[in-house]
Task: inverse folding
């Protein structure tokens, strides 16, 4: 907070640059297909997460 009070323009500029870098990284990642795309019957990470949730919600911890 003290940094903001002493130099508000630098603080705002740093936040804008950090946000733009984060958006650029997100955009670059979105250009690639997700894992498992077009490979039925499994469709990548979502399918793996769904199976893990199914196991953990329906089995006792001792059977994991």
Result:
């Amino acid at each position: 907070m003290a940094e903001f009070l002493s130099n508000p323009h630098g603080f705002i500029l740093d936040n804008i640059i950090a946000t733009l870098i984060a958006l650029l990284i997100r955009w670059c990642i979105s250009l690639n297909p997700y894992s498992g795309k077009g490979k039925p019957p499994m469709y990548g990470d979502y399918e793996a997460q769904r199976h893990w949730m199914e196991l953990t919600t329906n089995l006792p911890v001792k059977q994991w």
Residues 8-30 form the longest helix (23 residues).
